[in-house]
Design goal:
The complex is a heterodimer of chains A (160) and B (117).
Chain A (H helix, E strand, L loop, with lengths): L1 H7 L3 H9 L10 H27 L4 H22 L3 H27 L20 H15 L12
Chain B lengths: L2 H22 L6 H26 L8 H24 L3 H25 L1
Helix pairs in contact in B: 1-2, 1-4, 2-3, 2-4, 3-4
The chains are: A mainly alpha (160), B mainly alpha (117).
Chain lengths: 160, 117
């Protein structure tokens, strides 16, 4: 995994990082594995749902279905980046999880206060009520996990 | 909701419960938790075979047929994927990953029932 990262890292700074980064700069261990698994399930289901909506009834609600596709993309990026080691992937994870949090809060609020404009369901509608509110919980847990495993920190000894 | 759904309901909840308790007890994935997830896969195979028999016998699927089969195929990929992901790192957390399988399969089976009827 570390080798693959070196090849992909475009900046020399990042390459230097990876030389000094220990194997500890990962987020795919311990509770992170559960987080990644749940993100993966959401990435698959959101992608399938958005694909289905766009292929069969796109003209009904283009905005809502494009939003579904965007949500699916965010889940996909979060899943992959959380599974990868190194500082660059940490930043990608952070951006993806923050976008997800903003998305679920904004779309959730809009769908509550202006249901006329959001009549069609997306993953984030009503704060993810259709998915047991996991879409709202997930970015919060994601941020907590990213904070605990932020680069340059001694890993807290929470793994068993 | 048909018998296939209830089979997955029982097996899925049992499997999730077993894996959850094992995770809470700080155990790594073992034969019991992995076999419980295998039982979920078996229940899905029963659903698959049963559904093929019903379609061949001439029973129509009310919703989109390809959506139904898509759900079933995806659900069947979950147990092997979770077991693979879990045995790569044998910690208590992997049991929580395994616990997610039964519940997810249950939700997907509910959706499959909605599509069928």
């Amino acid at each position: 995994m570390e080798e693959a990262r070196n090849m992909k890292a475009p900046h020399s700074e990042a390459t230097q990082d990876s030389a000094t980064v220990s194997a500890k700069d990962t987020r795919n261990t311990g509770p992170g594995r559960l987080l990644i698994a749940v993100y993966a399930v959401f990435a698959i289901s959101a992608t399938a749902r958005a694909g289905y909506q766009i292929l069969t009834k796109f003209s009904e609600a283009p905005l809502a279905y494009l939003l579904s596709a965007f949500a699916a993309f965010v889940y996909l990026v979060a899943t992959v980046s959380l599974a990868k080691a190194g500082r660059t992937w940490f930043r990608v994870s952070l951006v993806a999880v923050l976008v997800e949090l903003v998305g679920v809060v904004v779309v959730g609020a809009l769908s509550v206060f202006d249901p006329v404009a959001f009549p069609h369901e997306t993953v984030w509608s009503l704060f993810g009520r259709g998915y047991a509110f996991i879409p709202l919980l997930l970015p919060i847990l994601g941020l907590v996990w990213l904070y605990r495993r932020r680069p340059g920190q001694r890993p807290a000894g929470e793994q068993d | 909701m048909d018998a296939f759904f209830y089979i997955i309901l029982v097996v899925g909840l049992l499997s999730s419960g077993i894996c959850l308790v094992a995770g809470i007890l700080k155990k790594a994935p073992n034969d019991v938790t992995i076999l419980s997830v295998a039982a979920v896969e078996l229940a899905l195979i029963v659903y698959l075979v049963g559904s093929i028999v019903r379609v061949v016998a001439g029973e129509p699927i009310a919703g989109e047929a390809w959506e139904f089969w898509g759900y079933l195929a995806t659900a069947m990929l979950l147990p092997p994927a979770a077991v693979y992901w879990a045995i790569l790192e044998r910690t208590r957390w992997s049991n929580f990953v395994l616990a997610a399988v039964g519940v997810t399969a249950l939700v997907m089976a509910a959706r499959m029932n909605q599509i069928w009827y």
